């Protein structure tokens, strides 16, 4: 994310748009439910009920809202099969899988520096 002042050239306008979009997407996906949905889907396709079983504590409403947001941002693909009752499946798109990889990297970073973070918090909170 860029945090500088922009000029008035077309390139600067593109940077402004990209910066604004990045902030919006980060705001959308930086919640525990979205990241848990992305992790649960992984490399597989799941139905709504299967996702709800995978993610402990998520309500029907929160799962629905987050799936819609992820689909809107192009991170999840929703496929409706014309059966009775309709069967709906969710899969990560290529950008969704890439975001999962980034989130996995952040988890790895946390594990690597866990002792350092806990020590710093202990000093700060004392």
Overview of the molecule:
The chain is mostly helical and 126 residues long. It has six helices and three strands; from the N terminus they run ααβααββαα. The chain has a three-stranded antiparallel β-sheet. The model has no long low-confidence stretch (mean pLDDT 90).
Q: Kindly state the mean pLDDT as a whole number?
A: 90
Main sheet characteristics: 3 strands, antiparallel
Number of helices: 6
Q: Helical percent range? A: 55-70%
Structural class, judged by helices and strands?
Answer: mainly alpha
Number of strands: 3
Relative strand content: 5-15%
Strand arrangement within the widest β-sheet reads: 1-3-2
Report the order of strands and helices. Answer: HHEHHEEHH
Q: Shape, please?
A: flat
Measured on Cα atoms, how large is the radius of gyration? 19 Å
């Amino acid at each position: 994310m860029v945090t500088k002042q922009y000029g008035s050239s077309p390139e600067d306008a593109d940077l402004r748009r990209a910066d604004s979009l990045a902030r919006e997407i980060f705001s959308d996906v930086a919640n525990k439910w979205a990241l848990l949905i992305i992790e649960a889907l992984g490399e597989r396709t799941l139905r709504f009920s299967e996702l709800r079983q995978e993610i402990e504590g998520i309500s029907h409403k929160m799962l629905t809202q987050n799936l819609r947001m992820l689909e809107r941002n192009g991170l999840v693909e929703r496929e409706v099969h014309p059966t009775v009752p309709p069967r709906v499946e969710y899969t990560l798109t290529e950008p969704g899988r890439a975001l999962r990889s980034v989130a996995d990297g952040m988890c790895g970073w946390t594990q690597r520096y866990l002792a350092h973070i806990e020590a710093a918090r202990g000093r700060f909170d004392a």
